[in-house]
Design brief:
It is built from 13 helices and 12 strands. The chain is of the alpha/beta class. It folds into 2 domains: 110 residues, NAD(P)-binding Rossmann-like Domain (Rossmann fold), CATH 3.40.50; 178 residues, NAD(P)-binding Rossmann-like Domain (Rossmann fold). Helix 12 links the parallel strand 11 and strand 12. Helix 1 runs parallel beside helix 13 and helix 5 packs across helix 8. The longest helix is centred in the C-terminal third of the chain and has 21 residues.
Length: 320
């Protein structure tokens, strides 16, 4: 199928590079919101493809009778109702691999920031306190000798593990099923993993099983020397339980790049000194976001030119 004259819907905002490249190949139909599309029947009937960074609910899929393919910006695609898409035979794609290195690098940086309090130390220097008050206080924690558990050993989890190995830490992991291509210790439950380690890095997608998975019991099992790092989805962590754990010393520290109701961050987090906070920037470099934008567009072009998407999600019906 030729990509010429094909209409692609963009609900809400998308990366400007993706929009510019899409405009070169497709007729674009842009709407402000996926929840209130405001499309006429004629407009809806023209839509054959879609590019989205965020939400694409079943209610939008239902009013697009000729939709064939949805290209989602990001490795996580929980904003797209893939079950509704699959029921219609609509292929959904995402942007894996091109952001693996960036997210893994950020996970390690956030871990170091959290255990060594490096952002606080820089702020101390910038405020002139080194001159006025002397040396910054010793960090109570260190990465040395830690046992790190990885919650989710997929593509990014494997990259995080590879970066951890030179730090000479012990590595274990929890996934739904053990992997046969790694030698790290496997735990069949998250609670078992938390009980065995003193550092937990979460890099799992949003699913019914992962929502609230890091709860009070998991935090208690992690222990008073424990450190939690989350670069996956904010919904994985029971935030009130984490706030209580940090206040009471149930765990020692946490580092978060993601939050349950982004961009809103619980005010209690901002008052704590034993937490390092980032505004969901794990993949937020210009080269990586450009590569993600390109993959969104390349998936649409490949589908409409050859009938073969590049990176379909497993829930949709395309078979390579």
């Amino acid at each position: 199928m030729s990509a010429e004259r094909i209409t692609v819907l963009i609900p809400g905002r998308i990366h400007p590079r993706a929009r510019a490249r899409l405009a070169d190949r497709f007729e674009l139909l842009e709407i402000a919101s996926a929840d209130q599309p405001g499309l006429t029947q004629t407009q809806a009937a023209k839509v054959v493809g879609a590019a989205v960074s965020g939400q694409f609910p079943a209610s939008l899929i239902d009013i697009l009778p000729n939709l064939k393919m949805i290209a989602s910006f990001g490795v996580g695609y929980d904003g797209v109702d893939v079950q509704a898409a699959a029921a219609r035979g609509i292929v959904v794609t995402h942007t894996p691999d091109v952001l693996n290195d960036e997210v893994a690098d950020t996970a390690i940086a956030l871990l170091l920031n959290t255990v060594r309090r490096l952002p606080a130390a820089e702020n101390y220097l910038r405020a002139g306190r080194w001159v006025q008050e002397g040396s910054f206080p010793l960090s109570p924690l260190s990465l040395k000798g830690r046992h790190v558990g990885i919650h989710g050993l997929g593509r990014i989890g494997l990259e995080i593990a590879a970066r951890l190995e030179p730090f000479k830490v012990t590595i274990s992991y929890h996934t739904r099923r053990p992997r046969d291509d790694v030698s790290y210790g496997y735990h069949d439950t998250l609670l078992s993993l938390a009980s065995a380690v003193d550092t937990l890095i979460s890099i799992v997608p949003k699913t019914p099983e992962t929502i609230g998975a890091i709860n009070a019991d998991v935090l208690k099992a992690l222990g008073p020397n424990g450190v939690l790092i989350n670069v996956g989805r904010g919904t994985t962590v029971d935030e009130p339980a984490l706030i209580q754990a940090l206040k009471e010393g149930t765990i020692a520290a946490a580092g978060l790049d993601v939050f349950a109701e982004e961009p809103k961050v619980p005010a209690e987090f901002l008052d704590l000194e034993n937490i390092s906070l980032l505004p969901h920037v794990a993949s937020a470099s210009i080269p990586t976001r450009n590569a993600m934008a390109d993959l969104v567009v390349d998936n649409l072009i490949a589908w409409f030119d050859t009938g073969r998407p590049l990176t379909p999600v497993p829930e949709t019906p395309f078979k390579a």
